[in-house]
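Q: I have 279 residues here and want to know how they pack in 3D. Can you give me a structure?
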Amino acid sequence: MGREAAAVRAETTRGPRQSSRSRKFPVPWGKQAVELLRSKDPVLAAIIERVGPLNIAYRRERFQALVRAIIFQQLAGRAALAIYQRFVKIVGGGRFPTPEGVLGASDEAMRRAGLSRGKIGYIRDLARHIRDGTLNFHRFPSMTDEQIIAELIRVRGIGRWTAEMFLMFNLRRPDVLPVGDLGLRSAVAKAYGMRQLPVAQELKRLAERWRPYRTAAVWYLWQSSRVMTMDSQGRGARAPEKQNDVTSGSSRSAGRDSAGQPTDRPIPRQNRPITPGVT
């Protein structure tokens, strides 16, 4: 989970430097989120003061973002980006391929891009779900976060962590709490003076005060790790842990996120087959 999460955070928090598709637009609920977090949690109030404005990167893509998340799973950022770029060039002819284009591409072409047999299967499964209508992004606005997660994790290679990153950075949902994210757990332990990383139930209890803007709280905590690292080392180092998301969605390894979203957050491991299922 580590590498991917870091990549995702980096891209979603630093944006344009890593992806021309990732842009920073103020979230519509940002002002209310910051006001509530400041009033309800003095620890977060101090972090907000150090970090500054809520600046969550936004990725408009749907199919492309999920494919990217699969490609970046369990890989270092540069290696994953090289494979992603070859995939776009070979399979899409320089433009990101459609689901139909992916299904029509040969295994040989996909392998030339550098994809493993497992990831080829995951990407094809995602494309089939979209082509057949079993995964329909147009339905998402009327669905709850949990309903969307349930839809996404039906796809092989997409786990809960990847689905949660998709909710946060692609759908801009305000109240997402990725309890399996190691970067978040590490940041919480440091910020709140805990001797051990909080388990899921502890994190959920603590986060009750952040509702309905837990996404903002998570983003600030990820950023707090970057700020502390920079302060202690005198230079801009990457945020701490990351996690991988494979097919399940449970998080185990430590690390940060991958490439479609924030590099300052960790990347969880999803089951066995795939990592962030994003990124």
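Q: Anything worth noting?
A: The longest helix spans residues 214-233. The chain is about 50% helix and 5% strand.
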